Amino acid sequence: MLIREKEANSIKEDKVTLVKNFTTLTKEYDANFVSRLIDENSLTVIEKTSLPNLKNVFQIKEVINCLSEFKIFFDFFRKLFKYEMDQRDEVDLFFSFVTQVGESHTDIEDVYIIGLNGKIIYRIYDEETKDYEINKGDLIFIPKGLKHKVIGLTPRVIASIGFYGKKNK
Predict the structure, then answer these.
(1) Is the pLDDT of residue 50 over 60?
(2) What pLDDT is recorded for position 48?
(3) What domains does the chain contain, in order, with CATH numbers?
(4) E-assigned strands of the chain?
(5) pLDDT of residue 115
(6) 121-146 burial, b if ≥16 CB within 10 A, otherwise e?
(7) What pLDDT does 100 receive?
(8) Which among 3, 5, 105, 120 is most buried, taking Cβ atoms within 10 Å?
(9) pLDDT value, residue 134
């Protein structure tokens, strides 16, 4: 895992931050991975898209204890950015097996998104609208309250690490 000082400072300042090649992933996070993860851990899958022709976006909540890499990512961000503990902090997976566009939304937590599979655009609506391309191993930080939209250019799997507590700078 690699975050340079400039990128860490940007996150500390609550700015959208893209980190290309944040981590090297040797595991294949594809449909077979998702299927095995669900079966082996008796996880519940939630369909997330409410738009009728933009369906097939799914979420698996609370996967932090399913695989060691998710716990490692979670602990890395918590310690690096000194988040206060909150019982809602968690790692979730989002995936789709088709290209799709999600709904514009804001999150009430700071979110660290790691690309596990596929090519995704995160459209951020800040002072100006800006697109960030995420691929396998890339990271994007989106601070709480910032409107954004996900555009899946291919089928995708991402890890979403959310912190609700205060970040101590």
Answers:
(1) no
(2) 67
(3) 5-162 (2.60.120.650)
(4) 17-19, 45-47, 58-60, 90-96, 100-101, 110-117, 120-125, 129-134, 139-142, 148-152, 156-163
(5) 97
(6) ebbbeeeeeeebebbbbbbbbbbeeb
(7) 82
(8) 120
(9) 97
| Whole-prediction pTM | 0.92
Tokens of 112: 């660290």
- Contact assessment for residue 63 and residue 43, using Cβ atoms and an 8 Å cutoff: yes
Q: What does the buried/exposed string (b/e) look like for 12-22 if buried means 16 or more CB atoms within 10 Å of the residue's CB?
A: eebebbbbeeb
Which structure tokens are listed for 55?
């369906």
Determine what percent of the chain is predicted with pLDDT higher than 90: 71
Identity of the amino acid at 68: S
pLDDT at 53 over 60: no
Residue 26, both tokens: 């040797």
Scanning the chain, the segments in alpha helix (DSSP H) are: 5-12, 31-41, 68-80
